[in-house]
C-alpha cells in the first residue's frame, strides 16, 4: 500500500528518496513519484505510472537536485492508477505533498475548494489536502501552522509529508491512523512509512503516534502531539541490516521466505520454551496472571493472519478447552458483539499496520476484554504499541506480498499461547513437555517437506492452464485449505475456493469436472475416513485429485489421483506442516504462469486503509 519517503539534508536527497521507494515496493503500488526543492527554491517533480525503476530512469535522464524532498508509491484507492493521480501533488507551484490513508470528507472539501477557485488535476482524495495547506499559507507564512490548520479540517486516516518552496529546508510530517517513522541522521532527518525504506541512511528511528505533527529541519526536530504541545518521543535503534531485503540467490522473495521457514520457526521459539515448558512472560510481564483468568478468547485478523486465527481456535478448544471465536477484523469492528467475562482479545498481523486489525484492537480496548494481545512480526508497529500483551514472531522481514513465513511463525506463537493458557486449565506437565518437543521438532520437519519441491513443481504444471481450483479440508485443516486457496489466487490469479469437505455435496460438487483440480489435505486423523468418502465423490465425477496425505493414511496414487505422502506427524502440528506444500504449489503454478510473484497485481503487503 502507499509508501512515503521524505528527507531534509545537506546532500542531494533524490538518491535517498529513490532507494527508499525501491525498498517500499514490497508494500504494493501502481505509480510512483518524487518532488524536490532545488537550490533556487523551485519545486520539481517526476511521476510515473508504473514501477520505481521507470521513475529512476526518468530521473537519470533529468535528475532533480536539492536537499529537501518527498516521494511516494501510490496504491490506487480514489482514482485510477495513472500519472495525474500519482503523488506528490502540488498546488500552484508552491506546496507539494504526499499522503497515505484516506480522507473521508474529501468530496465536501473539494466542492468548497472548487468554489474558492482551486483547480483539480487529479481524482484523488489527497489533492484537497495540498490545496488546504496552500489556502492556510495565505493567512500565515508558517508551514507548520498551515498544516495544523489543515489537519483540523480532515476526517479519515493520513500520514503526510509536506514541503513548501518559501521554506526550503523544512519538512512537515503528520500522522493519524497511517504509519510514519522519522529517521534520525547526523545533520539530516528523514521520514518514511516504515524503517526498511531508511535503513541505508540510518538505524535510529522515532515512531510517531496518532495525532503527532513533526516539524523537521536539517538540524532540528520538534514533535507536537494532537493538542499541539511539544512532546518527546524516544529514539529506537533498529537491529535490522540494510541488506535484509536481499533475495539471497533465490529467484523470488517468496521462494526465499518459504525456504527460510525452518529458521524463522526456530528463531520464533528461541527463549520461548525452557526445560519443556512454555515461558509465558514472553507475552508480557503480566501474561501469566492474565492467562490464569482466561475463560474465552476472541481473535480478530485479516487475510492469511485470519487463517492462522481459525487454526488456533481448534487448538484452543481442544487443548485448552477454552471457547474461541475468530472474526475478520473488518467485520468485527462494525458489528455489535457480546463479550463473555474474562475474554482475552487476540489480534494477529504480520505487518502490525493493517487498518482494520488495528481498529478492531482499538475497539477491543474500549470494550471490556480481560486484556489484549498482539501477535505480530514487526516490533515497533502500531499494533504492538497499542496492545497490552505482545508476542513477536521472529520471522524476519517478509517482502513477498503473499505471506508465508509470517503465517507459520504466527501459528507457532499461537500454539505457545494455547499451551500457556491450557496450563491453567488442566494440561499436565508431561503433556506440556510433549507439545514443546513437538514444536522444537518443527524446523527439521519443515525442512523435510521443502524437499518435495521438485514433485510439487511437476504437479504445478497441471494447474497452470486451469481457471479454477477447489481446496478441501476438515477440522483444523479447513483453514489450511483456505490458506492454500488464498495463496494460489493471490499469486497465480487462478480462482480458488476452499470448502469444508463435508460441504462438497451441498454445492461445489456441481462444479467438479476434469477442468477443476481438487486439492485435499488428508492427515491421518479421525476425519480421514470421512474425507476419503468425500474424495470418492470427486473421483466419481471425473475430477482430478491432488492429495497431501499422511504416509499411514493408505491412499495411493492412481489414475486421476496424485498423492504426495508426508511423514506422520502429531495432529496438532500438522496444520503448520501441511501449509508448506500448498505454499510451494501456489509458487510453482505462478512461476509457470509468469506472474509477478512478489508483487501480485492489485495487492498490497501492508493494507493501511480500510
Ligand atoms: C494483505 C497481505 C496479506 C496479509 C493481509 C493481512 O492482504 O497481502 O499477505 O495476510 O494483508 O495483513 P497483516 O499484516 O495484518 O497480517
User: How much helicity do the residues have?
Assistant: 25-40%
What percent strand?
A: 15-25%
Q: Output the CATH topology of the largest domain.
A: Glutamine Phosphoribosylpyrophosphate, subunit 1, domain 1
Shape summary: globular
- CATH domain class name of the largest domain: Alpha Beta
* Category from helices, strands and their pairing: alpha/beta
In total, the number of domains comes to 3
CATH superfamily of the largest domain: Aminohydrolase, N-terminal nucleophile (Ntn) domain
Query: What ions, cofactors and ligands are bound?
Result: 6-O-phosphono-alpha-D-glucopyranose
**Radius of gyration, CA atoms, in whole angstroms:** 25 Å
Task: Examine the secondary-structure arrangement and name the CATH architecture of the largest domain.
Answer: 4-Layer Sandwich
Query: Biggest β-sheet: count, sense, barrel?
Result: 8 strands, antiparallel
Q: Roughly what is the average pLDDT, rounded to an integer? A: 93
Spatially, the strands of the biggest sheet line up as 3-2-4-1-10-9-11-15
Please provide the count of β strands: 27
Instruction: Note the total helix count.
Output: 18
| N- to C-terminal distance | 11 Å
Poorly predicted regions: none
Amino acid at each position: 500500500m502507499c509508501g512515503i519517503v521524505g528527507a531534509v539534508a545537506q546532500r542531494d536527497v533524490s538518491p535517498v528518496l529513490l532507494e527508499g521507494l525501491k525498498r517500499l515496493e514490497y508494500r504494493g503500488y501502481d505509480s510512483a513519484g518524487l518532488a524536490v526543492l532545488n537550490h533556487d527554491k523551485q519545486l520539481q517533480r517526476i511521476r510515473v505510472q508504473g514501477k520505481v525503476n521507470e521513475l529512476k530512469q526518468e530521473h537519470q535522464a533529468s535528475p532533480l537536485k536539492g536537499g529537501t524532498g518527498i516521494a511516494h508509491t501510490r496504491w490506487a484507492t480514489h482514482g485510477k492508477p495513472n500519472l495525474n493521480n500519482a503523488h506528490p501533488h502540488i498546488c500552484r507551484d508552491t506546496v507539494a505533498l504526499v499522503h497515505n490513508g484516506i480522507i473521508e470528507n474529501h468530496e465536501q472539501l473539494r466542492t468548497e475548494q472548487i468554489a474558492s477557485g482551486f483547480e483539480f488535476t487529479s481524482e484523488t482524495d489527497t489533492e484537497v489536502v495540498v490545496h488546504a495547506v496552500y489556502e492556510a499559507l495565505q493567512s500565515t507564512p508558517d508551514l507548520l501552522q498551515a498544516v495544523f490548520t489543515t489537519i483540523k479540517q480532515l476526517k479519515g486516516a493520513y500520514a503526510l509529508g509536506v514541503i513548501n518552496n518559501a521554506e526550503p529546508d523544512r519538512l512537515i510530517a503528520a500522522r493519524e491512523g497511517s504509519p510514519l517513522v522519522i529517521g534520525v541522521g547526523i545533520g539530516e532527518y528523514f521520514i518514511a512509512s516504515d524503517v526498511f525504506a531508511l535503513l541505508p541512511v540510518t538505524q535510529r528511528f522515532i515512531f510517531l503516534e496518532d495525532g503527532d505533527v513533526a516539524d523537521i529541519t536539517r538540524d532540528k526536530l520538534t514533535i507536537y502531539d494532537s493538542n499541539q504541545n511539544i512532546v518527546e518521543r524516544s529514539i529506537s535503534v533498529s537491529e535490522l541490516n540494510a541488506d535484509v531485503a536481499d533475495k539471497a540467490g533465490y529467484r523470488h522473495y517468496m521462494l526465499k521466505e518459504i525456504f527460510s521457514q525452518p529458521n524463522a520457526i526456530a528463531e520464533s521459539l528461541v527463549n520461548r520454551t525452557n526445560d519443556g515448558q512454555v515461558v509465558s512472560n514472553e507475552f508480557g510481564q503480566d501474561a501469566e496472571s492474565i492467562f490464569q483468568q482466561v475463560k474465552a478468547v476472541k481473535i480478530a485478523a485479516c487475510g492469511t493472519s485470519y487463517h492462522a486465527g481459525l487454526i488456533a481456535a481448534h487448538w484452543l478448544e481442544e487443548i485448552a478447552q477454552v471457547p474461541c471465536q475468530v472474526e475478520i477484523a473488518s467485520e468485527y469492528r462494525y458489528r455489535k458483539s457480546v463479550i463473555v467475562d474474562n475474554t482475552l482479545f487476540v489480534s494477529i498481523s504480520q505487518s502490525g499496520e493493517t487498518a482494520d486489525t488495528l481498529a478492531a484492537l482499538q475497539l477491543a480496548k474500549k470494550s471490556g476484554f480481560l486484556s489484549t494481545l498482539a501477535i505480530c512480526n514487526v516490533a515497533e508497529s502500531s499494533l504492538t504499541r497499542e496492545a497490552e500483551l505482545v508476542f513477536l514472531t521472529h520471522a524476519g522481514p517478509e517482502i513477498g506480498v503473499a505471506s508465508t513465513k509470517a503465517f507459520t511463525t504466527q501459528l507457532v506463537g499461537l500454539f505457545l499461547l494455547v499451551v500457556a493458557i491450557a496450563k491453567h486449565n488442566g494440561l499436565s506437565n508431561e503433556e506440556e513437555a510433549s507439545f514443546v518437543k513437538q514444536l522444537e521438532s518443527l524446523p527439521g520437519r519443515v525442512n523435510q517437506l521443502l524437499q518435495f519441491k521438485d514433485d510439487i513443481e511437476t504437479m504445478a504444471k497441471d494447474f497452470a492452464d486451469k481457471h479454477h481450483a477447489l481446496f478441501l479440508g476438515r477440522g483444523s485443516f479447513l483453514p489450511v485449505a483456505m490458506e492454500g486457496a488464498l495463496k494460489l489466487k493471490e499469486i497465480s490469479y487462478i480462482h480458488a475456493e476452499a470448502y469444508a469437505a463435508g460441504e462438497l455435496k451441498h454445492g461445489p460438487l456441481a462444479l467438479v469436472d476434469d477442468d477443476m483440480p481438487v486439492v485435499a489435505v488428508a492427515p491421518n486423523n479421525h476425519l480421514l475416513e470421512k474425507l476419503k468418502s468425500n474424495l470418492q465423490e470427486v473421483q466419481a465425477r471425473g475430477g482430478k485429485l491432488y492429495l497431501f496425505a499422511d504416509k499411514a493414511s493408505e491412499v495411493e496414487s492412481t489414475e486421476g489421483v496424485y498423492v504426495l505422502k508426508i511423514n506422520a506427524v502429531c495432529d496438532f502440528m500438522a496444520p503448520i506442516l501441511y501449509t508448506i506444500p500448498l505454499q510451494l504449489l501456489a509458487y510453482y503454478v505462478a512461476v509457470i504462469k509468469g506472474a509477478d510473484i512478489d508483487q501480485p497485481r492489485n495487492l498490497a503487503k501492508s493494507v493501511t486503509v480500510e
